[in-house]
């Protein structure tokens, strides 16, 4: 083989290795649930006990409603009473879905938002992969700060784009992301200070315009 051929092969191998590394870096680890719960405690996030608590927090605007369908995302099999998230999680959903739509001209499918202890209990009974609603490894969906983005039906390029964006925000510590494969989705817990990141980006954009 010529030198150019070897260079091409090396470049391809690096790309494959980079993709594999990115994918594995978002895989769930033994302490993933512990880390999310520690962050929830650090952000002073209560867990939703029942539907009455969800309704009460929605009235106080500590949780905000999520539309069942927009141009850039839609909810899949999420009961009406659980279509709420924390304000900063809604900001994240609006931004990433809008960016995804502009790039790929298709909406994201969202399969989970806020859950209560009762709802999580039901899930854990019929799904062995569902986290417990109790203890140090309980589901972060109870906080209202988490959502799940489905990978079902997405192309390789679309999955890779989501992976890169989520990995970047994960590494910058604006969220905690896990790429799941048994149920093909990205689980994302958005941190309370995520709006500061958005404000920083907007300030930079305004500065460039001047």
Task: Walk me through the structure.
Helix content is 49%, strand content 14%. It has 210 residues and is an alpha+beta fold. The chain has one domain (29-209): 2-Layer Sandwich (Muramoyl-pentapeptide Carboxypeptidase, domain 2), CATH 3.30.1380. Strands 2-4-5-7-6 form a 5-stranded mixed sheet, with helices on one face. The longest helix is centred in the first third of the chain and has 23 residues, at 3-25.
- Order of strands in the sheet with most strands: 2-4-5-7-6
Q: Percent of residues in helical segments?
A: 40-55%
**Beta strand %:** 5-15%
> Could you name the CATH class?
Alpha Beta
State Rg.
19 Å
Unreliable residue stretches: 5-23
Task: Please state the overall shape, judged from the principal axes of the Cα atoms.
Answer: globular
Structural class: alpha+beta
Number of helices: 7
Number of strands: 7
Query: What is the architecture at the second tier of CATH?
Result: 2-Layer Sandwich
Strand and helix order: HHHEEEHEHEHEEH
Count the domains. Answer: 1
Q: What is the CATH topology assignment?
A: Muramoyl-pentapeptide Carboxypeptidase, domain 2
What characterizes the major β-sheet?
5 strands, mixed
What's the mean pLDDT score?
A: 88
Oligomer: single chain
What is the CA-CA span between the terminal residues?
53 Å
How are the elements arranged and paired?
Blueprint: H1 3-25, H2 32-42, H3 51-59, E1 64-65, E2 73-75, E3 84-85, H4 87-104, E4 108-112, H5 117-126, E5 146-150, H6 156-171, E6 175-180, E7 185-190, H7 194-209
Helix pairs in contact: 1-6
């Amino acid at each position: 083989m010529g030198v150019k051929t070897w260079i091409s092969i090396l470049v391809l191998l690096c790309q494959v290795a980079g993709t594999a590394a990115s994918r594995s870096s978002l895989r769930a680890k033994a302490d993933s649930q512990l880390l999310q719960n520690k962050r929830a405690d650090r952000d002073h996030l209560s867990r939703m006990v029942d539907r009455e608590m969800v309704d009460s927090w929605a009235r106080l605007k500590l949780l905000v409603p999520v539309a069942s369908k927009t141009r850039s995302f839609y909810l899949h099999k999420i009961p009406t009473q659980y279509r709420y998230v924390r304000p900063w999680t809604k900001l994240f959903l609006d931004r990433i879905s809008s960016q995804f739509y502009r790039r790929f001209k298709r909406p994201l499918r969202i399969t989970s938002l806020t859950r209560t202890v009762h709802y999580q209990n039901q899930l854990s009974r019929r799904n062995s992969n569902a986290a417990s609603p109790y203890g140090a490894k309980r589901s972060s969906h109870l906080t209202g700060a988490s959502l799940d983005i489905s990978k079902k039906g997405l192309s390789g390029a679309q999955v890779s784009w989501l992976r890169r964006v989520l990995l970047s925000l994960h590494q910058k510590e604006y969220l905690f992301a896990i790429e799941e494969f048994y149920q093909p989705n990205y689980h994302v817990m958005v941190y309370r200070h995520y709006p500061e990141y958005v404000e920083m980006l907007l300030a930079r954009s305004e500065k460039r315009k001047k």
